[in-house]
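Contributing new records

If you add data, match the layout below exactly. Sequence lines come first and carry their own label; structure lines follow with theirs. Keep one chain per record. Anything else will be rejected by the validation script.
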Amino acid sequence: MDTPTVRKPGTVDGHAAPSRMLSPTERWYWIIDQLSTLNVCARVRIEGELSAEALTEALRALQARQPLLRLAITDELPGGPRFVPTDNPIPLREVSLAHSEESPWEREVDEHEFAESVDWRSGPLARAVLIRQPGQVHDLVLSVPHCIADGTTALALLRQWVRLAAEPQTSDPDVADVADGPVPVAVEDLFPARYRDMSGVLPDKDPEAGDEPDTVQDAVVGRVVPDRFVPFHLRRTRLLHRSIDSDALEKLTTACKGEGVTLHGVLAAAMASAVARDAGAKPRAHFAVGSPVAFRDELDRPVSEDEVGCFVSAVHSVVAYQPDDLWAMARFINKDISARRRRGEQYSVFSLLASQGPIGIADSEPLVRYIEEQGSFNFFVSNIGRFDFPGALSGWRLSGAQFVGGISVVGYFASSVSTSHGQLNWNFTHIDEAVPRERAERLVDDCVKTVLTAAAL
């Protein structure tokens, strides 16, 4: 089949090239990105001499390695949206500051990267920002749409970009050069055989269905209640950055080991506690917190960090609010996530999207409204754990590597967590006006205080 190649924004010609339809999940993320921007952004600070020319050449080399970064999306062919090749380079936007700022990348992500989708019609499916400050201080931001990326993907692409800029003649043994390769298969095609039956239906929210543990089947499950309903197409993800330094992180890690819980369990418990306090909930009230989980190691073949794609799904935990025992909440969340993963619940959303997912914006309203009104959760914490990012390259000093993802229409309050360069970065996001900034800041400060207090006990 002949498929078009995008030669420049807004034009398509008839050259034959590798192409494929978007999978149901890719299509879903593509649709909701059009309703409300759904980018995944990765950032790192570089101190040292750095030229835009070197970064541009490195972006070209990065595209040569990654077929999914040489694509656009067309919705003008029969059958639904389709990936098509593009000759357009990854754009690099430059921002120059006259005075030094501690975190100018936060403003760029908040005001631009979360406000404007990557141009999927012209492609490619990525864009980059270089922020210059006095004293040879630079921030790099790479943004990728969620339909082809998760947090690990975004950080891995940023790491490849930086390495290529630092040492353009040095090949990376961990990343194969796939310049002439076809478009990679969809994530769903790599699922273990027992999860490839895409015949799912909308989950039954009737408590008699037995979807939740017996202890909570009769409970009212709390979620974030918005201050006001914001129409789906007007929703804006906003960013609030927080971090935990190496000393506090060490204490927190030690405390987690002593209590027999994971760091993710504590962060999720802290978010559930903050939401419960914000709602004025009584002890033992139940709240559903989402946990996006990676399944790269579960697939028919192992998938490395450097492979582009969205290799995550979400499970939720309905946890009882225990204001005096954060550790008990964390233990329950850890146990619950493990049980749900063993049952394969991380794959259920793919079944739903395959059987009942929309084809485009025009028929997306029923599913979007269902998620809004009856979805399992509307606040969540995405934690990719420790991510190995170089601290020095070719005379550069690197620091502050981290990621943050948008929310779009799947929730109201979220956080993106990663640990690199000895620091845990906890990037919170909220839907503007539905959760006003003042309220979001209270929630965020409550989360961080709860975790740090627990670590100090």
